[in-house]
Every structure is written in C-alpha cells, then in structure tokens.
Design goal:
The protein has 116 residues and is mainly α. The chain has a domain at 29-61. The protein has two helices and no strands. The chain has helices at residues 2-16, 26-62. The longest helix is centred in the middle third of the chain and has 37 residues, at 26-62. The N and C termini lie far apart (120 Å).
C-alpha cells in the first residue's frame, strides 16, 4: 500500500504547515464595496446625463424651427333631423306583449293599453 502511505505523508506535511496570511479583512472588504457602490452611482449619474443630453439633441434636431400654423376647423356638420315616428317601442311589461302602431306616439305611464 505504497499509494496510501504517500497520501498520508502528503497530508501530514500539509497539516503541519501554517495557513497563508489572509489577504482581506472586514475593513478591506467594506472599503472595496463602498468604492464599487460609489463607482456604480457615478456611472448611473453619468448615464442619465448622457441620455438627457441625447434626447435634447434629438428633439432640437427633429422638431421644426418655425411654429406650425393652427389647424383649420373645417366645415361644420349639420346634425341630421331624426324622428321617432317610425320607431316601435314596447311599454312596461313582458317584451312583445303589447304591439304599437307605427306613426302613433307611445306614452309609457305604466297603464296597459286597451286589449285588441
């Protein structure tokens, strides 16, 4: 079992070694995260400034220089004269239970018309 003995020797040697010193501490980690946040915030501000400037440039480039003339309202439309003489209406009650004669005005007073 030479292979097993070699592994034990390697692990024993590794166990006896001291751990390398930690390259980061809590204060270093906090300092780096604050720097990253500050950098991101600056990039966001710069990006919004660039976007605003771009919209302003495009608006100035594509909007007309002179004000446009007002829109003509056009000819007025006459309202059509409508009558309700040819409309059949049903008084209160079951639909279709009463028939009306075209051309006669219908009043809905709640009183049933005479039976025919």
């Amino acid at each position: 079992m030479v292979h097993e003995d070699e592994l034990r020797a390697i692990f024993s040697a590794l166990r006896s070694q001291t751990a390398p010193p930690s390259s980061s501490s809590a204060t270093d980690l906090i300092r780096r995260s604050q720097a990253n946040r500050s950098r991101r915030r600056g990039a966001a501000v710069a990006g919004s400034v660039v976007a605003t400037a771009g919209v302003l440039v495009l608006a100035l480039a594509f909007l007309p220089d002179a004000p446009s003339r007002p829109v003509d309202p056009g000819p007025s439309l006459r309202t059509p004269a409508s009558t309700t003489d040819s409309v059949l209406t049903t008084p209160k009650g079951a639909p279709g239970s009463y028939r009306t004669t075209p051309g006669l005005p219908v009043t809905t007073t709640g009183v049933a018309p005479p039976a025919t």
